[in-house]
Amino acid sequence: MSTAPVLEVRDLCVSYGKVEALHHVSLKVETGQIVTVIGPNGAGKTTLLSAIMGVLPRSQGEIAYLGHAQREIEVERMVAQGMTLVPESRALFGEMTVEDNLLLGAFMRHRLGHRDERATMAQVFEIFPRLRERHTQMAGTLSGGERQMLAVGRALMARPRLLLLDEPSLGLAPLIVREIFRIVADLKKSGVAVLLVEQNARAALQIADYGYVLETGEVAISGPSDQLQDDPKVIESYLGLG
Ligand code: ATP
Fold first, then answer.
1. Which of 26, 159, 165, 203 is most exposed by smallest CB count within 10 Å?
2. Which family does the record assign (predicted)?
C-alpha cells in the first residue's frame, strides 16, 4: 500500500487581483523528504508558501496535506495538523525573551490539550545550544543567525510534520548558513518533512532530495537534487562558476 505524500500541490494558480503570480504549479513532498524550491526574486516562492499554508486563496488547483484536500483559507487547520511556516521576516517578538518566543510556538499544541512544551523546548535547546545560552535574552537583541535559529526553534515547538522554510539563509554569513542548513538536514532524521524555499540554490540543493526551479510563477525544471546540480541550465543560472 502506498502512503499519500505529506504535501501534494496540483495545478496551482494564484493571482493578486488581475495579475497571476503562480501558473499551474505542481509539486510533491514525500514523507521524510527535504524538497527545495529555488528561483530568483519575484518568482513566486513566498506566494507558493502562503497558498500552501492556506493564507492566500487560489484561483485554480488543489493542495492536499497528509492526503486530505485543503479547502480555501484553512490556515488554522493546517497549523493544528502540523504544518508550520518559518517566514522570511522571521517574525519574532523582539521585546520578548528567547524562551517566551519559543513558548509561543507551542501555542496551538497547548490549545489542543498537549502539555509537553517544556520537554519540546529541551529538545530545541539540544538542537540549538546557542538558544539555551541566551534563553533570557530579548529576541530583538539577537544576531541575525541567532534570530534565524530562534525562528526555526519556535517552529519546532509546534512539533511539525511539515516545515515550510522561506529563505532561511537570507542575510546570513556563509558559516551561519552552513550551520542552519546542517540542522535542517538533521531534522529529516527525526521524520520532519521540509519544503525549503531558497535563492541560495547551491546550499539548498546540497541538502535537498528533490528540487523545483520556479521562474516567473512557473516550474521551469524539476528533478532529484543531484540531477539538478548537474543540469547545465541550473549551473548557468543558479550555481554560477564558484
Ligand atoms: P523574493 O525572493 O524576492 O521574496 P518570491 O519568489 O518570494 O520573491 P513573491 O513574493 O511570491 O516572490 O512574489 C511573486 C510576484 O507576486 C511578484 O511579482 C510580486 O510583486 C507579486 N506579489 C507578491 N505579493 C503581492 C501582493 N500582496 N500584491 C500584489 N502582488 C504581489
1. 26
2. Belongs to the ABC transporter superfamily.
